[in-house]
DNA sequence: AGCCGCGTTGTGGGT
DNA sequence: AACCCACAACGCGGC
């Protein structure tokens, strides 16, 4: 007669197969290929248990600077996700601790058959995922990951660009245009178990986090304008999509102050990916105020700055001319000073467009042909040879003949007297000699561009160039392929 | 969405 | 008719 001992029975129940879907960023049921893959796996494993998990990295909670509102957004999102999962006969299991330890525990105790997740390209996530992947590999457990956080697989785009991130807008467009159509979105998961759900062995464990647990100082919470969660997000999306005028005008953001929050991915603060060239700009309050107040002695520049100050709008090429003059062209003052003046004076100032355009024009980012220097004398002549624009905004110079109006300091004294405007008395002499200073500045730009940026920290996961053989998925073991892309 | 100097080519008037 | 010459227009490379 065989003895049945309770321990053995417990052991038997632990043998129930488990499929893990690891939620990280994509806290949603719709358009979630990794969740779909997890659910599909259940078909081949009768009575298997799905564990949708979220790991609260407690060390991160203690050290990562996240505001109260953002923590609340996460708590909201997880609660909404849990609610949706419960309606499908499952739930969210919130594990606590470092992800590697949590997976060690799970792999040891849950008879895991498959782990699925959505890829995350942030450095912290890549390092974490590589470690978890190794653990799973050692345990002989299959892992499936999917690119669904971004429209395209970043690795594929990188490969198309020789494994380098595009740093100009044109390059970015080129790369995307060769990538073809992004994959179609996936329908929401609406069913998990075909039969009645297996019993939850951890009914009272792995509960949702609370604000208190996350040390949220509730006095720092702002009004609850944007609750987190898939349900609320879809509601807002649906609502926006009914506003046809808003949508059709969205490409012209200058008409709409209430735009959707911009993505911050392009301006990542990661110090290893510094986008902005670090240039040794001068601090020169005299030059700065002369520029801002339209008394540089260059009529074309001063006329533009006068129009800006008086009327609040200047043509975009005029913006180019004065931005170049302030920064790399002549005065060698930081674009951030110019940004502040434009922000103060431009009726159409948009903080992101303004900052981006100043970086562009100063050749600090996106645009790098720094030897393309606008002349404060000849640039305006091409479209206004008689200087009518200058006459309008600088009436002191209105009587200068066309051949002197762009550089009145070259006019003979007789001409200056006849025009009723003595240079150096009635209108300033040029504060810099453009012909000389722009050459000096070219050398300074040259030096700034030659300066090697500080090397990336060691151990930072880095995209490496994949060899041609790796393109054939079937010939390369999954783990090797994964490492070649993520380690 | 630069500017300059240089060389080449084209043009028109004059000898 | 053939040639000279000044000048404009254009393309290119370097910064």
Automatic annotation (TrEMBL):
Residue segments, region Disordered: 450-476
Gene Ontology MF terms: deoxyribodipyrimidine photo-lyase activity; DNA binding; FAD binding
Domain Photolyase/cryptochrome alpha/beta positions: 17-151
Cofactor binding: number and manner: Binds 1 FAD per subunit.
Swiss-Prot/TrEMBL keywords: FAD, Flavoprotein
Pfam families membership: DNA_photolyase, FAD_binding_7
Residues noted as binding FAD in the record, renumbered to the chain: 246, 348-350
Cofactor(s) of this protein: FAD
BP GO annotations: circadian regulation of gene expression; entrainment of circadian clock by photoperiod
Site (Electron transfer via tryptophanyl radical): 281, 335, 358
Keyword Plastid: no
GO annotation, cellular component aspect: cytoplasm; nucleus
PANTHER family registered for this protein in UniProt: CRYPTOCHROME, CRYPTOCHROME CIRCADIAN CLOCK 5 ISOFORM X1
Protein name, per record: Photolyase/cryptochrome alpha/beta domain-containing protein
Organism, as annotated: Allacma fusca
């Amino acid at each position: 007669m065989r003895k049945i001992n309770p321990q053995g029975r417990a052991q038997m129940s632990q043998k129930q197969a488990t499929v893990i879907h690891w939620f990280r960023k994509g806290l949603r049921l719709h358009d979630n290929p990794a969740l779909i893959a997890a659910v599909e796996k259940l078909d081949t494993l009768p009575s298997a248990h799905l564990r949708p998990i979220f790991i609260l990295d407690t060390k991160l909670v203690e050290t990562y600077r996240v505001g109260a509102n953002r923590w609340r957004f996460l708590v909201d999102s997880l609660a909404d996700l849990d609610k949706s999962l419960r309606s499908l006969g499952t739930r969210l299991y919130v594990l606590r601790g470092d992800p590697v330890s949590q997976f060690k525990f799970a792999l040891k105790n849950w008879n895991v058959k498959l782990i699925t997740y959505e890829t995350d390209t942030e450095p912290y996530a890549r390092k974490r995922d590589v470690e978890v992947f190794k653990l799973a590999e050692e345990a002989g457990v299959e892992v499936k990951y999917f690119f669904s956080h971004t429209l395209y697989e970043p690795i594929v785009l990188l490969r198309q660009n020789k494994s380098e991130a595009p740093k100009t807008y044109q390059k970015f467009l080129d790369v995307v245009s060769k990538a073809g159509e992004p994959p179609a979105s996936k329908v929401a998961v609406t069913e998990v178990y075909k039969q009645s759900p297996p019993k939850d062995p951890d009914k009272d464990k792995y509960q949702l986090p609370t604000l208190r647990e996350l040390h949220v100082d509730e006095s720092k919470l702002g009004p609850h304008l944007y609750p987190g969660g898939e349900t609320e997000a879809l509601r807002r999306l649906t609502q926006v999509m009914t506003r046809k005028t808003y949508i059709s005008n969205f490409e012209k953001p200058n008409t709409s102050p209430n735009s959707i929050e911009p993505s911050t991915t392009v301006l990542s603060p990661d110090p290893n990916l510094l986008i902005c060239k670090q240039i040794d700009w001068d601090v020169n309050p005299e030059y700065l105020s002369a520029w801002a107040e339209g008394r540089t002695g260059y009529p074309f520049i001063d006329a533009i700055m006068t129009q800006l100050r008086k009327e609040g709008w200047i043509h975009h090429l005029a913006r180019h001319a004065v931005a170049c003059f302030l920064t790399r062209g002549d005065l060698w003052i930081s674009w951030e000073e110019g940004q502040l003046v434009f922000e103060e004076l431009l009726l159409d100032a948009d903080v992101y467009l303004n900052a981006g355009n100043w970086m562009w024009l100063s050749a600090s980012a996106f645009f790098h042909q720094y030897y393309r220097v606008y002349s404060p004398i000849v640039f305006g002549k091409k479209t206004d040879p008689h200087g009518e624009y200058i006459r309008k905004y600088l009436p002191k110079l209105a009587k200068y003949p066309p051949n002197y109006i762009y550089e009145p300091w070259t006019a003979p004294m007789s001409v200056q007297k006849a025009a009723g405007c003595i240079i150096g008395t009635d209108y300033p002499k040029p504060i810099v000699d453009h012909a000389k200073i722009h050459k000096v500045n070219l050398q300074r730009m040259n030096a700034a561009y030659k300066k090697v940026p500080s090397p990336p920290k060691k151990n930072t996961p880095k995209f490496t160039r994949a060899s041609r053989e790796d393109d054939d998925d079937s010939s390369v073991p999954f783990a090797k392929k994964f490492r070649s892309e993520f380690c």
